[in-house]
Design goal:
heterodimer, A: 317 residues, alpha/beta, B: 413 residues, 39% helix, globular
């Protein structure tokens, strides 16, 4: 990899640019920031697979494409399989010497939203991780089925309003806890698993580089603030993400080889979750007196999780 | 380099083994597969070739059939030869990706060992999985025995990968009656077989980074229609390539295949149209009936189920002697006539003779189709011919226990 150190955002802006600025993602969508960071974190050739979702429908509408690298989309659930079997093909062709450039380094990456990662594509992802292909799966986690207008996913947090888990006169929104996908992926024994956020762009770039460099299946969950469904001003994407990481709603950490946990960001001032919830329309109903208990529950869950992560880190096992 | 597999001039192979040997000889780069009865041995045999150095490619055992076809699509877009095998429920699970594979114009070869679709769960052979694939945009070729399963699998790569075609190909054989029946098979030597199949020529290769490609784009009402029309044209036009590959195969081996196989049709008064391993039974019955009762029976069989050979079916049925044609469908028709009846009737309607058309559903879930049953149907056909009109319901269930089941009486007298 040619880019071994990244000093500042300006340097990033001059690195190779294989994801064109012209695409159909919403203004303020964090997807494109995350994708560009991934693509800028390596000079190697890239084969990218995308599940159906916001990223896919916004970047490859015939006769246009935003991808100045090899890219494939099959269906909603199978980008992990597409990327992993393209990797298998690379191995086979390299061995047989039928590649156009047999020595050029290639990285295989799959992108999915939380719908295709946590829900409909879960089996395909699990299969690809278990098979041990040399590829990296990146979940663009915006905590709902945003592409189809904001339905619940198993990544939607407690209390959030979605069109299929609505807040109403007798409901405070989603009742169930968010699935812990990072733990599930770590339990596959993957060599590198992380949760990263685009506001912490340095740790994100480092995490991406680690995942791309490490041989084997790596998984990264990235928080991708969704201006349309979380309901905030498009200019506030990074501000909202700051609140997500500073309230520890989205702790930033990595797990090496399924067990070695490292916290990658410790907020100097841990903010109360109200600051994060209050900045988004999807949580507005939680501030009604009768829903106070939900905010308390969310804060309790966050505190417990943070305690757990810190203890796991200290344990060094 | 893969080791050469020593083969005798004549081997005793079943349909599964024959298909897996053809896959091995084609030197596939990636096989992504998930086992299912009755096609499991194809995947197992391939696993043995991998384990013993007879194949250089990658063997990816995925977590489901949907994953298998997804993996085939990803691998194929990465510019190499790809194949897999499945049956029945596995085929049904793959269906979403079958359409994606053909729409993306990836020449994957899929061996389908035909088996009934649940429910009720059934592992035996019928054609419901083959019929499920008929609108998926794949070429579908049907082998009736182990030799054909081997020969036609080699042809399948040539056909699908032809630059004018670039479409995926299903190679069908009947579950158990073909897949598990051992017979003498004359294989080609590895080198000869590979030379016939040829080197894979990548198109829109994802691993050629000098020319980045986007696979699986989105189109709405502005372009979707044109794409699908182009795909259909490629499928219809593949007929000439199929003929060409069959001709080359005949020149190499002396074994002749046609998009429509026909037997004793020159003077036939009645004809059966059917697919798969039942063809052999029907031909035997027709020969005996000609001898024993003087009924002039002919047999027609579309070797190629897709693209459907309307041209050759019409040619075959356009004889002045022909009065009755009965199509035998080995798939539950689901509230309609059998698919073969519909296709063949469309072709027959354009002939001068316009024979009377009837439909038999038979053999569901592996119900045996024997010579006696074939003869009973042929006699029924002869009765129509003699009466000058159809004397039974147009659609009947053959070989069914209990009271007779039929639909659509004709009002002709």
């Amino acid at each position: 990899m040619a880019i071994t150190s990244i000093k500042n955002l300006k340097e990033f802006s001059t690195t190779n640019d294989r994801f064109e600025g012209s695409h159909l993602l919403c203004p303020g969508c964090a997807h494109s920031m995350i994708v560009r960071e991934l693509m800028n974190s390596t000079d190697d050739n890239l084969v990218i697979a995308s599940n159906t979702g916001c990223l896919e429908v916004s970047t490859a509408v015939y006769p246009y494409t935003s991808w100045d690298t090899s890219w494939i989309h099959i269906g909603f659930e199978n980008a992990a399989t597409a990327a992993s079997c393209a990797e298998a093909m690379h191995k086979a062709r390299k061995r047989k010497g039928t590649l156009k450039d047999n020595d050029a380094p290639v990285k295989f990456v799959a992108f999915g939203g939380d719908g295709s990662t946590y829900d409909i594509g879960f089996q395909w992802l699990s299969g690809a991780m278990e098979r041990g292909h040399d590829f990296t799966y990146i979940c663009l986690d915006n905590e709902n089925y945003a592409n189809t207008g904001g339905q619940r996913s198993s990544a939607t947090p407690v209390g959030a309003h979605t069109t299929t888990a609505q807040a109403g006169s007798v409901s405070y929104g989603k009742k169930q806890k968010k699935k812990d996908m990072v733990a599930i992926m770590a339990a596959h024994g993957a060599p590198y698993v992380a949760q990263l956020a685009p506001n912490k762009w340095k740790s994100m770039a480092k995490g991406f580089q680690k995942a791309l460099e490490i041989e084997g299946p790596c998984f990264i969950n990235t928080v991708s603030a969704c201006t349309t469904e979380w309901k905030f001003d498009p200019k506030d994407t990074i501000g909202i993400t700051d609140l997500a990481t500073d309230t520890l709603m989205f702790p930033i950490y990595e797990i090496i080889n399924g067990h070695e946990l490292n916290i990658l960001y410790r907020p100097k001032n841990i903010l109360k979750v109200e600051d994060y919830l209050g900045a988004q329309g999807r949580y507005r109903h939680l501030f009604k007196p009768e829903n106070k208990h939900v905010i308390e529950r969310i804060q309790k869950d966050i505190d417990e999780k943070w305690e757990f992560l810190q203890r796991r880190e200290e344990a060094r096992i | 380099m893969a080791k050469e597999f020593e083969l005798n001039e004549v081997e005793v192979w079943d349909g599964n083994y024959a298909a897996s040997q053809a896959l091995r000889q084609a030197q596939i780069d990636v096989v992504a597969a998930y086992p299912i009865t009755p096609s499991t041995p194809i995947v197992e045999n391939y696993g043995a070739y991998i384990a013993n150095g007879y194949v250089d490619g990658e063997f990816v055992m995925v977590e489901s059939e949907h994953g298998a076809m997804s993996g085939c699509v990803g691998a194929s877009a990465a510019g190499g030869r790809v194949a897999t095998a499945t049956s029945s429920q596995g085929f049904a699970l793959m269906t979403e990706v079958l359409y994606q594979a053909s729409g993306m114009r990836l020449p994957i070869v899929l061996t389908v060992v035909n088996r009934a679709l649940a429910s009720p769960l059934n592992v035996r052979g019928d054609h419901s999985d083959m019929y499920l694939g008929r609108d998926s945009g794949w070429i579908q070729i049907d082998a009736y025995d182990a030799q054909e399963a081997y020969d036609l699998a080699l042809c399948a790569f040539r056909i699908g990968e032809h630059l004018d075609v670039r479409l995926p190909v299903m190679m069908h054989q009947d579950g158990f009656t073909t897949s598990h029946k051992a017979q003498n098979v004359y294989p080609l030597k590895d080198e000869v077989a590979y030379k016939f199949v040829g080197d894979y020529v990548p198109v829109n290769d994802m691993l050629d980074f000098s020319r980045p490609v986007t696979h699986g784009a989105q189109t709405e009402e502005d372009w979707h229609y044109e794409h699908k029309a182009k795909q259909h044209k490629a499928l219809m036009d593949s007929r000439s390539v199929i003929d060409e590959v069959f001709a080359d195969f005949k020149a190499l081996t002396g074994r002749e295949y046609k998009r429509v196989e026909s037997y004793m049709m020159e003077d036939a008064e009645v004809a059966l149209v059917l697919l798969g391993s039942s063809v052999e039974t029907a031909v035997l019955a027709a020969k005996q009936l000609r001898e024993e009762e003087g009924i002039k029976v002919g047999i027609v069989s579309p070797r190629c189920f897709r693209p459907f050979p309307y041209d050759l079916i019409r040619e075959t049925l356009d004889t002045s002697s022909l009065k009755v044609v009965s199509c035998l469908d080995k798939s539950a028709p689901g509230g309609a006539m059998g698919a073969l009846f519909n296709e063949v009737s469309a072709a027959a309607y354009t002939t001068q003779a316009r024979p009377m058309m009837t439909n038999y559903i038979y053999g569901l879930g592996g119900r045996d189709f024997a010579v006696d049953e074939a003869k009973r149907i042929m006699r029924e056909q002869k009765a129509h011919a003699d009466a000058g009109h159809i004397t039974t319901p147009i659609q009947q269930f053959s070989g069914l226990r209990g009271p007779k089941l039929g639909f659509f009486e004709t009002r002709r007298s």
